[in-house]
Every structure is written in structure tokens, then in C-alpha cells.
Amino acid sequence: MQALQGSLVALVTPFQKDGSVDYESLRRLIDWHIDQGTDGIVSVGTTGESATLNVNEHIDVIEFTANHVDKRVPVIAGTGANSTQEAIDLSEESRRKGADHVLLVTPYYNKPNQKGLIAHFEKIANSVSINQILYNVPSRTACDLLPESVEVLSKHKNIIGIKEAVDNMDRIKSLTNISKNNNDFLVFSGDDPTFMNALNNGAHGVISVAANIIPKSISDICSFIRENNKEEARALNEINNNLYKLLFVESNPIPLKWMLYKMGLIQNSIRLPLIELDETFHDETMSELMRLKLL
User: Fold this and answer.
1) What's 93-117 look like in SS3?
2) Which of 69, 131, 181, 219 has its CA at 20 to 30 Å from residue 30's CA atom?
């Protein structure tokens, strides 16, 4: 299996005007990302609007993605849920449909304690034979998976890494220390504005929203860090700083999908309860896309 590192795009799920999945746009996005140097595709993660795809759509998009990627890069299926059994079922079905790894967000809304989180992820890992990446994003889930719990879970052979979406380098250092004691355990940043700092502190890559817009740039930054060309990485990253901010002026993927629409890559369609980017942000966003020569 290909090494999992570098720029992994948290890919959007494009929709037709009627809200159905736009598979032709998805096909083009996958090919574009691979051509641009993206190191892996995350299918139907939270950026892919997993919360509003029904189970059949969820699995169909993962199967389509795995088939079209055809082992050119790793495919990571978003299969987390706040029901442990649902996460097991989605993970097993994704394995059957050709995903290489699964990404498991912490249970949202339930607010389990650390013992409950360990039990949840161990149950999934014991039930499904596929590489599993934990996903911690407390700003969205009201649930924080602490490094002490990650260390316990890292000992399971099926749990191979974590996506950490917390803007805290002490947290990243704690996780990369776990990785130093277990070379098979990988740490991925899930926070675009600070991902380069995470890489400089030992993270193996990023699962990136911004990579949807600037795949080559995010891939190049990851490559520069691996090659210890930190000044080149810093200079390129600084160019993207305003874009990182604009991608989160409203809930992800609202700004992202509007940008991709303006770039001519997808149709202007997002599922309720999310709606199109507020007009307040249109002018600044268009100016930034033009500054980056993306239009």
C-alpha cells in the first residue's frame, strides 16, 4: 500500500442543481487533484457534507471515488458517526467498496468521556479490518479526544493515525511524541492556517480544506518540509494566509463550494441546512481568487 503522507484533500461532494450527487464533476475533481500532486483523497468527510448524505449516497460516493482513483493514490473514506454501530457498518462497507483507510470523527452531540471514546474506537477497530485514522475536531463535535486517550488507542494494530484539528502546537507535539514511540502511528494536521507549523513539529501531513482550491501549493509545501526547505515552505504558505481565513468565514464547506463554483469546477449547489456564501463576503473572496490567479 502507498505511504500515507503529505497533502490529503478533504474533498467536497459536488451536487447537481437538484441536490443529487454530480458524479461527472467528482470524476474531474479526482483527476485534477491527482494531476496537481495531491497525495490522497478523503471521500465523504465532513467537508464532503457527510452529515447530509444518506447512507446509500455515502457508500456510492466512496465506491465511485475508489473505483475512479484506481489505486493511483490512497482513498480515505469518512465513516465516523455518533453511533458506534453505524461507524462499524460504514467502515466495513467502505472496506468492501475499495477504500484503503477510513477516517473516524469523534462522536458528536453525545459527548462521551475519555473512557467512552476509547471504548468506541476500540470497538470499531476490533470489528473492521481496515486502517483507521481518528479525527478530533472539538470545535464541531463538542467532544475532545485527549492525547492520553490517543496513546492508548495507538497501540491497536488497526488504528494508524489521527487527524488533529486543534490550533495548539503543544497538542501536536504531544501527538508526534506518541508517533516517535510508535513509528507506525501517523499525525495529520486538520487545521489549514497552522498545518505548516504542525509539519515542522513532526506531523506527517495535512488533511486539507484549502487543497480543494490550491492542491499544488499545499502539496508543494508538504514536499518542501520533507526536504527541509523550510524557507521555501514558509514563503509559499504566506501567500495562502488570506485564503485560509476566507475558507472559514462561514461554516465549512460554504465558502469552499462557492469558490469552486466561481472557478468553474462544480455547480453552485450545497445542501440544507447550509446555504450559499453570504453576499457580504463575495467581493473579498473574488479579489482573493483573482490575486491567486485562480480565475
Assistant:
1) HHHHCCCCEEEEECCCCCCCCHHHH
2) 131
Q: Homologous superfamily of 6-229 in CATH?
A: Aldolase class I (3.20.20.70)
Collapsing DSSP to helix, strand or coil, 24 comes out as helix
Q: Nearest CA to 11 among 28, 284, 281, 137?
A: 28
Short-list 177, 166, 206, 201, CA closest to 45: 206
Cell matching residue 157: 494494530
User: What stretch of H or E contains 163?
Assistant: strand 159-164
Radius of gyration of the chain, Cα coordinates, nearest whole angstrom? 18
The residues assigned a catalytic role are 135, 163
Contact status, residue 102 vs residue 135, Cβ threshold 8 Å: no
- Our measurement of the distance from residue 70's CA atom to the centroid of its chain's CA atoms, rounded to an integer in Å, reads 20
Fill in the amino acid letter for 68: H
Residue 113 φ then ψ, to 5°: -80, 180
- Sort residue 264 into left (φ over 0), alpha (ψ -120 to 50) or beta: left
In order along the chain (295 residues), what is the average pLDDT of each group of 10 residues? 87 97 98 98 97 97 98 98 97 98 96 97 98 96 96 96 95 94 89 97 97 98 96 98 98 98 98 98 98 96
**Is 203 exposed, middle or buried, given 0-12, 13-18 or 19+ CB atoms closer than 10 A?**
buried
Q: Which amino acid is at 40?
A: G
Contact predicate 80/105, CB 8 Å: yes
Determine what percent of the chain falls in helix, strand and coil, rounding each to the nearest 5: 50, 15, 35
CB of 253 within 8 A of CB of 47? yes
